[in-house]
Specification:
Layout lengths: L1 H11 L2 H19 L3 E6 L3 H12 L4 E6 L2 H10 L4 E4 L5 H14 L5 E3 L5 H15 L5
Helix pairs in contact: 1-2, 4-5
Length: 139
């Protein structure tokens, strides 16, 4: 990863831009290699949730669990301590608020965010932003 960062530095060229990208890249490296991140994703469409499950579990530093019901989400919370919860397609605002309240009772402080799709890049960015916010880190 550091070699990739060094090769990008000559491509970027602008010293200020390089410093900003280096800080962001080092932030990602910190989350990528320092600890395992456990993520719960809750949505309605089984096919979409299968894709999200695959994307969540692709990096070796992430453990993802994808479920399609609120009951399954609550059961998963009884088995695993999660670092982040993603509310995905098919979860209404009202159901999301109720589920968030239940999950917060089981594990106070766990961040719960909406995931609206958009591919693996957006998913990764949402995860990194939520974890940074949770840990009060500034880029």
């Amino acid at each position: 990863m550091l070699l990739q960062l060094q090769s990008n530095s000559s491509f970027i060229g602008n010293n200020r831009l390089f410093k900003q990208n280096a800080i962001y890249s080092l932030f990602i490296i910190h989350y990528s290699f320092t600890f395992m991140v456990h993520i719960l994703a809750v949505g309605r469409n089984p096919d979409i949730m299968a894709v999200i499950d695959r994307l969540l579990n692709a990096p070796e530093n992430r453990s993802g669990t994808a479920v399609t019901t609120a009951a399954a989400a609550i059961a998963a919370f009884g088995e695993t301590r999660f670092d982040l919860v993603l509310l995905c397609a098919g979860i209404s605002e009202q159901e999301g608020a109720a589920l968030t309240a239940q999950l917060q009772q089981l594990q106070p402080g766990v961040p719960v965010i909406r995931h609206y799709g958009g591919g693996s890049g957006l998913l990764d960015n949402e995860i990194h932003a939520a974890l940074a916010s949770q840990n009060n880190k500034k880029l």
